[in-house]
Amino acid sequence: MVCMLRDKWLSKDARTFLTCRTDGLPGTKSTCFSATKRSRYTDKMRFTLLFLLLSVPPSSFIKGAETEQDFIWHFKKLPLIVGQRTFRLESPKFQAEIKLELNGTCGIECQKTLPRPSRSDLEDCLSYETIFENGTRLRTDVNIQGSLPQVKSENATSVTGRLRRKRQVYGTDSRFSISDKHFMTNYPFSTAVKISSGCSGVLISPKHVLTAAHCVHDGKDYIKEARKLKVGLLKIRSKGGGKNRRGSKQRKKGSSDAQDPRTPVAKSLNKRSVEGNKNRKGSRKNRGESQGNPSFQWTRVKKTHIPNGWLKGVTAKDVALDYDYAVLELKRPQKKKYMDLGISPTTQHMPGNRVHFSGFDSDRPGQLVYRFCGVRDESSDLFYQHCDAEPGSSGSGIYIRLREPQSKKWKRKIVAVYSGHQWVDLNGGQQDYNVAVRITPLKYAQICSWIHGNAADCTHA
């Protein structure tokens, strides 16, 4: 027998019930379970913990001088990203290999030594390439209309450098595998998608997916898998196996003859039915296991947008990492609920200083993995954090929950794209972090114009 103590605890992000082991300490109320029930109880408690984690409002954890007024999605006027000139480029070779880890990129310390980009520099970086499924490649030069957003050069924390050691899981692995089909196929987890190149992404409109640029392009050429790129969304298999199964029209057409047991049609159908039942007896168990289970429904990518900031500087120590994002347009719209974009606030305006994201980590095949953690450091374009992650989760949409200004309801929005594990220069050495690219006002305006096809629809966020 194993005794379990029910203990109430409070974290920065949520109030949950945590099941803890005890040897029967005095003054504790314990519930005992046999070993055979332990696994089921553990699974149930993990999902209960996760449900409570997502349902408790962030306002429960406001501390000190912070007020709920600090945690609001502010209505902002955006500069316009307007296409000036579009011209055709040579078709890509599709010979690059996907890079799961980028070395030598310019991090926060490196960025402090760089001059502030001019309007011309920003226009060059925000110009973009569009590649279509047939290999046609276009370049669009853009013009920024309106005032440039104010850049706040404040860092959340300063961290001491330590010995270089590769790791993407920090300390105890705190990731949650979402195995319950009702969780993984419902919002917000249902917005996470799998990219056929081996990355993750997030649905930001019925037809658009946000992911990392390095998931389709290595800075010099498109990766091999980008030639026939697909996006997979988790859906529960229906018991019917489809709307119209093969042969249904023929059976419907001859249904009047089949109702009369004396006709040759009815005799033939009855014979096949008996034989089919015999053949299917041994497969009922297997059919039951596959029915109702989540599986990927794959959709072809119609076209891909990548900012020139990624294409021009991924091999040099400049701002390339700031532009590690791409938008994929699907061939057909999805009926799933998507997650809206939001402009990334500073960490002081995030409840608990925490971010959340879900993806398809390669070390847990077939599982959707959720995690949350605090941001360790920030620049105007990057988040540094120690959220546990593995290759495969790159491109995931990082979100937070803030209040809507009118309704005061809490709403999730995507504020960054998970780029992956990076080595960055820090305090004279190299420090490893899991890095995310923040959605700034300029990036929001660009992504919005990619979604709507018109910059005039993207004047406010």
From TrEMBL:
Ranges of Polar residues composition bias in the record: 289-298
Start-end of Basic residues biased regions: 236-253
Protein family membership: Belongs to the peptidase S1 family.
InterPro entries membership: Glutamyl_endopeptidase, Peptidase_S1_PA, Peptidase_S1_PA_chymotrypsin, Trypsin_dom, TRYPSIN_HIS
Subcellular location: Secreted
Signal peptide start and end residues: none
Pfam families: Trypsin
Gene this protein is translated from: PRSS35
Species per Swiss-Prot/TrEMBL record: Geotrypetes seraphini
Limits of the Peptidase S1 domain: 185-232
Keyword set, alphabetical order: Glycoprotein, Hydrolase, Protease, Secreted, Serine protease homolog, Signal
Region (Disordered): 234-301
Gene Ontology MF, one: serine-type endopeptidase activity
Protein name (record): Inactive serine protease 35
GO BP terms, alphabetized: proteolysis
An example Gene Ontology CC term for this record: extracellular region
Tree of life domain: Eukaryota
